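Q: What would this chain look like folded?
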Amino acid sequence: MCAKTLYNYIDKGLLTTKNIDLALKVRRKPKKGRARRNKKILGESIEKRPEAVEAREEAGHWEIDSAIGKSTDKTAAMTMVERKTRKQIAVKLDSRGSAAVEKAAKEICASCGNIGKAAFKSTTGDNGAEFAGLKGAVECAVYFCHPYASFEKGTDERHNGLLRRFIKKGGSIGELAPEIIEMAAEWNDNLPRKILGCMTPAEAFAQELMKIKEAIAA
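A: My prediction, written as C-alpha coordinates:
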Protein backbone atom coordinates (compact mmCIF):
# COMPACT_ATOMS: atom_id res chain seq x y z
CA MET A 1 0.00 0.00 0.00
CA CYS A 2 1.49 3.33 -1.07
CA ALA A 3 1.70 6.52 0.99
CA LYS A 4 -0.87 8.31 -1.17
CA THR A 5 -3.47 5.61 -0.44
CA LEU A 6 -2.85 5.92 3.29
CA TYR A 7 -3.16 9.71 3.08
CA ASN A 8 -6.48 9.31 1.28
CA TYR A 9 -7.73 6.94 4.00
CA ILE A 10 -6.78 9.50 6.64
CA ASP A 11 -8.61 12.29 4.77
CA LYS A 12 -11.72 10.13 4.61
CA GLY A 13 -11.54 9.33 8.34
CA LEU A 14 -11.00 5.61 7.77
CA LEU A 15 -7.98 5.50 10.08
CA THR A 16 -7.57 6.66 13.66
CA THR A 17 -4.39 8.53 12.70
CA LYS A 18 -4.89 12.26 12.13
CA ASN A 19 -3.05 14.67 9.83
CA ILE A 20 -1.50 16.38 12.85
CA ASP A 21 0.21 13.10 13.79
CA LEU A 22 2.21 13.09 10.55
CA ALA A 23 5.09 15.54 10.19
CA LEU A 24 4.91 15.66 6.39
CA LYS A 25 1.17 15.35 6.07
CA VAL A 26 0.44 18.58 7.95
CA ARG A 27 2.10 20.46 5.10
CA ARG A 28 -0.48 19.09 2.68
CA LYS A 29 -3.92 20.56 2.41
CA PRO A 30 -6.56 17.94 3.19
CA LYS A 31 -8.99 17.34 0.35
CA LYS A 32 -12.44 18.73 0.82
CA GLY A 33 -15.29 16.46 -0.14
CA ARG A 34 -17.63 17.94 -2.71
CA ALA A 35 -21.27 17.33 -2.02
CA ARG A 36 -23.31 16.75 -5.15
CA ARG A 37 -26.21 19.07 -5.65
CA ASN A 38 -29.62 17.51 -5.86
CA LYS A 39 -30.35 16.82 -9.49
CA LYS A 40 -33.92 17.20 -10.67
CA ILE A 41 -35.67 14.10 -11.99
CA LEU A 42 -37.23 15.03 -15.31
CA GLY A 43 -40.27 12.78 -15.02
CA GLU A 44 -41.57 9.40 -13.83
CA SER A 45 -38.92 7.61 -11.79
CA ILE A 46 -37.58 4.25 -12.91
CA GLU A 47 -39.00 2.94 -9.63
CA LYS A 48 -42.45 3.18 -11.23
CA ARG A 49 -41.45 1.06 -14.21
CA PRO A 50 -43.39 -2.26 -14.37
CA GLU A 51 -41.54 -5.41 -13.33
CA ALA A 52 -42.18 -6.91 -16.78
CA VAL A 53 -39.89 -4.25 -18.25
CA GLU A 54 -37.13 -5.08 -15.81
CA ALA A 55 -37.53 -8.80 -16.54
CA ARG A 56 -37.40 -8.25 -20.32
CA GLU A 57 -40.56 -10.32 -20.70
CA GLU A 58 -41.86 -8.43 -23.72
CA ALA A 59 -40.40 -6.41 -26.55
CA GLY A 60 -41.04 -2.71 -27.02
CA HIS A 61 -39.22 -1.31 -24.00
CA TRP A 62 -36.25 0.86 -24.89
CA GLU A 63 -33.36 2.68 -23.26
CA ILE A 64 -32.12 5.96 -24.71
CA ASP A 65 -28.82 7.78 -24.45
CA SER A 66 -26.68 10.34 -26.23
CA ALA A 67 -23.03 10.09 -27.22
CA ILE A 68 -20.83 13.12 -27.64
CA GLY A 69 -17.39 13.56 -29.17
CA LYS A 70 -15.08 16.53 -28.87
CA SER A 71 -16.13 19.26 -26.47
CA THR A 72 -16.13 21.68 -29.41
CA ASP A 73 -18.59 19.55 -31.39
CA LYS A 74 -22.05 21.04 -31.79
CA THR A 75 -23.47 17.70 -32.89
CA ALA A 76 -24.01 14.40 -31.09
CA ALA A 77 -25.38 10.92 -31.65
CA MET A 78 -28.53 9.48 -30.09
CA THR A 79 -28.87 5.78 -29.41
CA MET A 80 -31.82 3.61 -28.46
CA VAL A 81 -31.62 -0.07 -27.46
CA GLU A 82 -34.59 -2.42 -27.08
CA ARG A 83 -34.19 -4.27 -23.79
CA LYS A 84 -35.40 -7.74 -24.79
CA THR A 85 -33.85 -8.15 -28.24
CA ARG A 86 -30.89 -5.73 -27.84
CA LYS A 87 -31.84 -4.08 -31.13
CA GLN A 88 -29.98 -0.77 -31.44
CA ILE A 89 -30.87 2.40 -33.32
CA ALA A 90 -28.27 5.14 -33.68
CA VAL A 91 -28.69 8.46 -35.45
CA LYS A 92 -26.66 11.63 -35.79
CA LEU A 93 -28.20 14.74 -34.25
CA ASP A 94 -27.99 18.28 -35.59
CA SER A 95 -27.20 19.57 -32.11
CA ARG A 96 -26.80 18.46 -28.51
CA GLY A 97 -30.00 20.12 -27.34
CA SER A 98 -33.36 18.67 -26.38
CA ALA A 99 -35.03 19.84 -29.59
CA ALA A 100 -32.77 17.59 -31.67
CA VAL A 101 -33.47 14.60 -29.40
CA GLU A 102 -37.22 15.19 -29.57
CA LYS A 103 -37.14 15.40 -33.38
CA ALA A 104 -35.08 12.21 -33.73
CA ALA A 105 -37.24 10.27 -31.24
CA LYS A 106 -40.43 11.27 -33.07
CA GLU A 107 -39.01 10.20 -36.43
CA ILE A 108 -37.86 6.83 -35.07
CA CYS A 109 -41.27 6.05 -33.56
CA ALA A 110 -43.05 7.22 -36.72
CA SER A 111 -40.87 4.95 -38.88
CA CYS A 112 -42.75 1.93 -37.50
CA GLY A 113 -46.05 3.20 -38.92
CA ASN A 114 -49.23 1.65 -37.51
CA ILE A 115 -47.30 -0.71 -35.23
CA GLY A 116 -45.40 2.14 -33.59
CA LYS A 117 -47.34 2.08 -30.33
CA ALA A 118 -46.79 -1.67 -29.97
CA ALA A 119 -43.12 -1.45 -30.92
CA PHE A 120 -42.46 1.45 -28.53
CA LYS A 121 -44.20 0.79 -25.21
CA SER A 122 -41.73 2.61 -22.98
CA THR A 123 -38.42 4.45 -22.99
CA THR A 124 -35.95 4.89 -20.13
CA GLY A 125 -33.38 7.68 -20.09
CA ASP A 126 -31.20 9.53 -17.65
CA ASN A 127 -31.72 13.07 -16.36
CA GLY A 128 -29.55 14.80 -18.94
CA ALA A 129 -30.95 18.14 -20.11
CA GLU A 130 -31.21 16.78 -23.66
CA PHE A 131 -34.05 14.50 -22.53
CA ALA A 132 -36.11 17.26 -20.90
CA GLY A 133 -38.78 17.14 -23.64
CA LEU A 134 -38.71 13.40 -24.28
CA LYS A 135 -42.05 12.70 -22.63
CA GLY A 136 -43.86 15.05 -25.00
CA ALA A 137 -42.02 13.72 -28.05
CA VAL A 138 -42.95 10.03 -27.92
CA GLU A 139 -46.32 8.33 -27.53
CA CYS A 140 -45.21 5.88 -24.86
CA ALA A 141 -44.38 5.74 -21.17
CA VAL A 142 -41.12 7.51 -20.29
CA TYR A 143 -39.08 6.71 -17.19
CA PHE A 144 -35.95 8.32 -15.80
CA CYS A 145 -33.05 6.81 -13.87
CA HIS A 146 -32.16 8.05 -10.42
CA PRO A 147 -29.81 11.06 -10.48
CA TYR A 148 -26.20 10.06 -11.19
CA ALA A 149 -27.29 6.45 -11.85
CA SER A 150 -27.05 6.02 -15.60
CA PHE A 151 -25.99 2.42 -14.93
CA GLU A 152 -29.70 1.74 -14.41
CA LYS A 153 -29.98 1.77 -18.21
CA GLY A 154 -26.99 -0.49 -18.58
CA THR A 155 -28.12 -2.14 -21.81
CA ASP A 156 -27.74 1.09 -23.76
CA GLU A 157 -24.54 1.97 -21.90
CA ARG A 158 -23.07 -1.40 -22.91
CA HIS A 159 -24.08 -0.97 -26.54
CA ASN A 160 -22.63 2.51 -26.63
CA GLY A 161 -19.36 0.89 -25.63
CA LEU A 162 -19.60 -1.33 -28.71
CA LEU A 163 -20.45 1.71 -30.80
CA ARG A 164 -17.21 3.33 -29.68
CA ARG A 165 -15.34 0.88 -31.92
CA PHE A 166 -16.49 3.10 -34.74
CA ILE A 167 -17.09 6.40 -32.93
CA LYS A 168 -13.91 6.94 -30.94
CA LYS A 169 -14.29 8.61 -27.57
CA GLY A 170 -13.01 12.15 -27.83
CA GLY A 171 -13.20 12.03 -31.61
CA SER A 172 -15.37 14.35 -33.64
CA ILE A 173 -18.91 13.16 -34.28
CA GLY A 174 -19.48 16.27 -36.35
CA GLU A 175 -17.00 15.00 -38.93
CA LEU A 176 -18.76 11.63 -39.27
CA ALA A 177 -21.35 11.04 -41.96
CA PRO A 178 -24.76 9.93 -40.59
CA GLU A 179 -24.33 6.68 -42.53
CA ILE A 180 -21.25 5.78 -40.46
CA ILE A 181 -23.21 6.02 -37.22
CA GLU A 182 -26.09 3.98 -38.66
CA MET A 183 -23.61 1.40 -39.98
CA ALA A 184 -22.08 1.04 -36.51
CA ALA A 185 -25.51 0.24 -35.04
CA GLU A 186 -26.16 -2.21 -37.89
CA TRP A 187 -22.89 -3.97 -37.06
CA ASN A 188 -24.05 -4.34 -33.46
CA ASP A 189 -27.42 -5.66 -34.63
CA ASN A 190 -25.80 -8.42 -36.67
CA LEU A 191 -23.56 -9.64 -33.88
CA PRO A 192 -24.83 -13.04 -32.54
CA ARG A 193 -25.53 -13.01 -28.80
CA LYS A 194 -25.36 -15.96 -26.45
CA ILE A 195 -28.14 -14.42 -24.34
CA LEU A 196 -30.39 -14.55 -27.44
CA GLY A 197 -29.62 -18.20 -28.15
CA CYS A 198 -26.96 -17.18 -30.67
CA MET A 199 -29.48 -15.14 -32.64
CA THR A 200 -28.59 -11.61 -33.66
CA PRO A 201 -30.53 -8.62 -32.28
CA ALA A 202 -31.74 -7.95 -35.83
CA GLU A 203 -33.21 -11.47 -36.08
CA ALA A 204 -34.74 -11.33 -32.60
CA PHE A 205 -36.32 -7.93 -33.24
CA ALA A 206 -37.69 -9.06 -36.61
CA GLN A 207 -39.40 -11.97 -34.87
CA GLU A 208 -40.98 -9.64 -32.33
CA LEU A 209 -42.21 -7.29 -35.08
CA MET A 210 -43.81 -10.25 -36.86
CA LYS A 211 -45.66 -11.20 -33.65
CA ILE A 212 -46.93 -7.62 -33.32
CA LYS A 213 -48.13 -7.53 -36.93
CA GLU A 214 -49.91 -10.87 -36.55
CA ALA A 215 -51.60 -9.70 -33.35
CA ILE A 216 -52.81 -6.51 -35.08
CA ALA A 217 -54.09 -8.44 -38.08
CA ALA A 218 -55.95 -11.00 -35.94
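The beta strands are 61-67, 76-82, 88-93, 122-125, 141-144.
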